[in-house]
């Protein structure tokens, strides 16, 4: 997963408590409290009730866990790494992994149509499981083959070799076992089981396993989304991708086990700011150097932040999470949940004020910008003839590449600097509907496997995954993202892109059961 998940899932609850008791002085605090009290009275808290599904009967799915664990363990040994330098690509790792999948899941490869796609490197996998009723809208399950690199200076911190796939102390260890090969293999294990039982879906089901999610998905997921769109698919009934695993305490203030379902993602664009001029000797410098000009532009840009606003996905998140938090906080959550776009109450302004003071929660409120690369200079006594910087933006809906480029040019106000889009930019996605048949089917499946003693809530994904290439299109208005595996605690997030990535053997069995069950539950969805 591209973003650091241990930071991604620290929603505003971490700072909400301070809203209810902060103030520069007592008089100001009294005025704010009085105003908030008035607004609280205007909110009907009787309507701010729990949105949690009740009374779902659990199911138990019998899985060949020993065999499944061996197959996932072997999968980890293929170093399908995505490096930022796309020429540094291990083709053998991917082709060997594909051959292994064919041997590991023979019934899947006999029954489903397999295509190997991607541009300029074709290593992404598209599987088509033909349904019995072609009139039904298809479903799509997404996961990615690639993993992030393991830095050499971190290898001695691993308790098991990162590409060993070791099964030790009740865990499967290794790079990609959590992000995201567990999802690939849980899907294929469940499909293999279903095919052995003679089962065929009513609607066509697609599996998409990308090759470059960790670097944006332009070679894999985007190409496959283009292909499916060109083939005339009008609408998917259900699309699911990875994001947050089930984790107790993932939402501060709630200790219960929590399943967060991503319903929207921010976009992605990287701009290069560059200048080309005359170099020379450092003993005779100009009044402004190329480095100084770019540095001044970056300073201006960082001072011109995009405005804050409350995204509809954030409102949905607090509509579901708010009623589960302490009663004294609920007026504030209700104000956010029931607020209207384009209007801003004083309570919502206070919410934004506090959230914007935290680097994690701030990202939920506006299009962010981050200076990530600076290139200039070749020698300490030579004036560089050119200088450049790369700024990465994560756009909110409405902030298109054109809007962002215009914002940058106005902020820096310097015609000497060229601004260029150097990324496979993607806009912010649609917002998946919450509470519809597809969302409810997903929540039901989660509860069938992991029980009713957990909180299920939508949330706004400030990072991104490959499904953004689908969700930004008309044929996939509703994309739901969740990594269908249980973590013991938030400490396990350190394995995402870090050291000692691992999952519990027992929980992997439940992941397989989840996909087995969701294939059945898809039958309940209407056309």
UniProtKB/TrEMBL annotation:
- Supply the alphabetized keyword list: Hydrolase, Metal-binding, Protease, Zinc
> Which InterPro entries does this UniProt record tie to the protein?
Bact_exopeptidase_dim_dom, Pept_M20_carboxypep, Pept_M20A, Peptidase_M20, Peptidase_M20_dimer
> Is Metal-binding tagged as a keyword?
yes
The answer, when asked if RNA-binding is one of the entry's keywords, is no
Q: Provide the Peptidase M20 dimerisation domain boundaries.
A: 263-414
| Matching Pfam families | M20_dimer (PF07687), Peptidase_M20 (PF01546)
Which protein family is it in?
Belongs to the peptidase M20A family.
Identify this protein by name: M20/M25/M40 family metallo-hydrolase
Native source organism of the sequence: Marinigracilibium pacificum
């Amino acid at each position: 997963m591209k973003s650091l998940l241990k930071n991604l899932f620290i929603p505003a609850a971490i700072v909400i408590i301070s809203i209810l008791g902060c103030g520069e002085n007592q008089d100001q605090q009294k005025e704010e409290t009085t105003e908030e009290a008035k607004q609280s009275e205007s909110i009907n808290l009787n309507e701010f009730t729990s949105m949690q599904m009740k009374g779902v009967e659990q199911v138990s799915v019998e899985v060949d866990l020993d065999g499944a664990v061996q197959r996932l363990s072997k999968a980890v040994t293929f170093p399908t790494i995505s490096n930022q330098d796309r020429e540094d690509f291990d083709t053998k790792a991917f082709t060997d992994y594909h051959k292994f999948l064919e041997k590991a899941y023979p019934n899947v490869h006999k029954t489903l149509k397999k295509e190997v796609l991607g541009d300029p490197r074709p290593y992404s996998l598209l599987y088509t499981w033909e349904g019995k009723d072609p009139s039904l809208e298809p479903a799509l399950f997404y996961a990615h083959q690639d993993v992030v690199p393991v830095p050499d200076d971190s290898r001695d911190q691993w308790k098991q070799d990162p590409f060993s796939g070791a099964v030790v102390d009740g865990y499967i260890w290794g790079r990609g076992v959590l992000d995201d090969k567990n999802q690939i293999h849980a899907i294929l294990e469940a499909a293999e089981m279903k095919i052995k039982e003679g089962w065929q879906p009513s609607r066509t089901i697609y599996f998409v396993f990308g090759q470059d999610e960790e670097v944006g998905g332009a070679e894999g997921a985007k190409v496959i989304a283009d292909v499916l769109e060109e083939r005339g698919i009008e609408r998917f009934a259900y699309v699911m991708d990875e994001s947050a695993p089930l984790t107790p305490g993932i939402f501060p203030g709630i200790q219960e086990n929590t399943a967060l379902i991503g319903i929207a993602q921010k976009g992605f664009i990287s701009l290069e700011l560059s200048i080309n001029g005359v170099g020379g000797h450092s003993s005779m410098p100009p009044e402004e150097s190329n480095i100084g000009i770019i540095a001044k532009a970056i300073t201006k840009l960082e001072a011109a932040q995009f405005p804050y606003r409350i995204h509809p996905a954030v409102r949905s998140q607090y509509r579901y999470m708010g009623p589960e938090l302490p009663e004294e906080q609920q007026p504030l959550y209700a104000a956010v949940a029931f607020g209207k776009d384009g209007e801003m109450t004083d309570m919502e302004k206070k919410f934004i004020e506090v959230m914007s003071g935290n680097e994690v929660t701030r990202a939920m409120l506006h299009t962010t910008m981050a200076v990530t690369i600076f290139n200039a200079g070749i020698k300490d006594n030579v004036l560089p003839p050119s200088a450049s910087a790369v700024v990465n933006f994560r756009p909110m809906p409405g902030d298109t590449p054109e809007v962002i480029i215009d914002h940058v040019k106005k902020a820096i106000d310097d015609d000497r600097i060229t601004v260029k889009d150097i990324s496979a930019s993607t806009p912010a996605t649609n917002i998946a509907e919450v509470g519809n048949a597809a969302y409810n089917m997903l929540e039901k499946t989660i509860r069938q496997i992991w029980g009713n003693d957990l909180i299920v809530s939508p949330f706004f994904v400030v990072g991104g995954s490959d499904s953004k290439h689908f969700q930004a299109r008309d044929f996939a208005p509703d994309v739901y993202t969740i990594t269908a595996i249980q973590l013991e605690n938030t400490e396990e997030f350190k394995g995402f892109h870090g050291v000692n990535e691992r999952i519990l053997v027992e929980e992997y069995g439940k992941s397989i059961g989840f996909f087995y069950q969701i294939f059945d539950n898809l039958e309940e969805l209407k056309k």
